[in-house]
Design a protein that fits this description.
This protein is of the alpha+beta class and 324 residues long. It contains seven helices and 18 strands. It is globular.
Length: 324
């Protein structure tokens, strides 16, 4: 049908300028806009076997049908962009999570524009909800259940050690049937002279762990000059170079270097560290591991430190069993 037939206006062949304008408006009004898929988050997942991260996933058909799609995370008002994942969905990942935040809700609001209209969708999730859901899934095997319980026990021990949200511990009310009952004794793998050089410019003065929201290895060293200096940590064949150092208070020419790349299933894996300047080794090579610290200080579960070390190593061991 002609627009004129539908509206009562004159035919589109009329040369009157105003009528032609009316026809254009009517045509625009009658033009159908494409139907949009529902603006929503399809699913949420977490990664616990490496770093702690929560992933809000949006179907590609939704992401690509809208414009300027992004997310805002409430925890620290962080804008997150979508990244196409291996599953064909767009992942909006939030990585500023630590184990002691297991029960902290992470609220994500998805934003986008479609056909000139703004859309939003808000969802909330937490580490605890994920653990609960996976634990209760009939397809979850016993090794993974042990890993989940051990993780929440570690999270709770870390909450107590750091005095964080202690009125709502991560493992309260969680079934402990699959928890690791005993801890395999830690082994001290420290070796300060894996390889040596003559007259090292950097001398190792101490090593241990810092236990806060996350656990880092802290190496103390002495050097007259740190210009161009880097410390290379190597674990399971992967190198990590650290170039930022913290002065040790009350000393001269002594510094701390922090290494936080040990994965949960690597807590019993030894790593080495060497200082370099311009690609040349300027220190002896030393060896350490997370379990070495536990072996050195002891695992006394009547103390808050001992509880953390016990729970941490059980979590690492069950992670290695469940995921390799």
């Amino acid at each position: 049908y002609e627009v004129a037939t539908m509206t009562g206006a004159r035919t589109s062949s009329n040369t009157d300028e105003q009528t032609q304008g009316d026809v254009a408006i009517y045509k625009a009004m009658l033009e159908e806009k494409p139907a949009l898929p529902e603006f929503k988050v399809k699913t949420v997942s977490l990664s616990l076997s490496d770093s702690v991260a929560i992933h809000f996933k949006v179907e590609a058909s939704v992401y690509e049908a809208y414009e300027n799609v992004y997310a805002m995370i409430s925890c620290d008002v962080q804008r997150v962009e979508g990244v196409l994942g291996s599953d064909g969905r767009y992942w909006f990942s939030y990585r500023n999570l630590t184990p002691n935040m297991a029960k902290v809700p992470v609220e994500m609001t998805l934003y986008g524009t479609g056909n000139g209209q703004a859309y939003t969708k808000t969802v909330s999730y937490s580490i605890y909800k994920y653990c609960q859901s996976l634990y209760n899934n009939q397809n979850t095997n016993d090794n993974v259940k042990t890993f989940l319980v051990d993780f929440l026990n570690y999270a709770a021990a870390l909450q107590e050690y750091t005095n964080y949200n202690v009125d709502d511990l991560a493992n309260v009310g969680f079934d402990q049937s699959y928890a690791s009952a005993t801890l395999t004794a830690p082994v001290n793998q420290f070796n300060g002279r894996v390889s040596t050089i003559d007259n090292p410019a950097v001398v190792w003065k101490g090593i241990g762990l810092t236990i806060k929201d996350v656990i880092n290895t802290r190496v103390k060293f002495q050097a007259d000059d740190i210009t161009g200096l880097s410390i290379r940590f190597t674990i399971n064949g992967t190198d990590y170079n650290v170039t930022e150092f913290t002065p040790v208070e009350g000393t001269e020419n002594q510094y701390y270097a922090y290494f936080g790349k040990t994965l949960p299933n690597e807590m019993r894996t030894a790593f080495t560290f060497t200082a370099y300047r311009n690609g040349v080794a300027v220190s002896n090579t030393a060896q350490y591991s997370i379990q070495s610290y536990a072996a050195q200080v002891g695992v006394d579960t009547t103390t808050s430190l001992g509880k953390v070390l016990d729970a941490m190593l059980k979590y690492g061991d069950s992670c290695a069993v469940a995921f390799g």
